[in-house]
């Protein structure tokens, strides 16, 4: 879902919502009082506690001086994620499990 909100409110310019299971991610472009653009990233998660439902929200504000650094970092991390998913070279198990190996451990030794 995306929409242009320029006519609704002066501080909100554009919004994109991405639904992902119990979470929704919002990408909102807004303007400051000085008419500078900034971005808010919001994670909204439906939570049930004591039989009542509510939304837990976490928000990040990203200002124009950091746009390029943020995009560069995000591009780099997304490329690395793709590479790791393709190669499988991310499993750093310090205790490899060998299901076929005989173990010296017994419950009696406890």
Describe the structure.
- The protein has 110 residues and is an alpha+beta fold.
- The protein has one domain (2-88): Nuclear Transport Factor 2, Chain: A.
- The protein contains one helix and five strands.
- It is flat, with a radius of gyration of 23 Å.
Please give the order of strands in the largest beta sheet: 1-2-3-4-5
**Percent helix range:** 10-25%
- How many discrete structural domains? 1
Termini separation comes to: 58 Å
Q: Please, how many helices?
A: 1
Instruction: Enumerate the spans where pLDDT stays under 50 for 5 or more consecutive residues.
Output: 5-9
The structure class reads alpha+beta
What's the level 1 CATH class? Alpha Beta
The count of strands amounts to 5
What integer value in Å does the Rg equal? 23 Å
CATH fold-level topology: Nuclear Transport Factor 2, Chain: A
Keywords:
alpha+beta; 5-stranded antiparallel beta sheet; 1 helix; Nuclear Transport Factor 2, Chain: A; 110 residues; 42% strand
List the helices and strands and how they pair.
Layout: E1 2-4, E2 12-20, E3 23-31, E4 37-49, E5 52-63, H1 67-87
Antiparallel strand pairs: 1-2, 2-3, 3-4, 4-5
């Amino acid at each position: 879902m995306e929409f242009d909100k320029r006519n609704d409110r002066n501080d909100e310019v554009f919004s994109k919502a991405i639904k992902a299971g119990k979470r929704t991610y919002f990408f909102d472009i807004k303007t400051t009082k000085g008419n500078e653009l900034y971005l808010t990233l919001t994670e909204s998660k439906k939570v049930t506690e004591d039989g009542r439902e509510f939304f837990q929200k976490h928000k990040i504000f990203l200002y124009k001086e950091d746009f390029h650094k943020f995009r560069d970092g995000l591009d780099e991390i997304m490329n690395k994620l793709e590479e790791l998913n393709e190669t499988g070279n991310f499993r750093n198990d310090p205790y490899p499990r060998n299901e076929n190996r005989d173990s010296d451990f017994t419950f009696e030794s406890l």
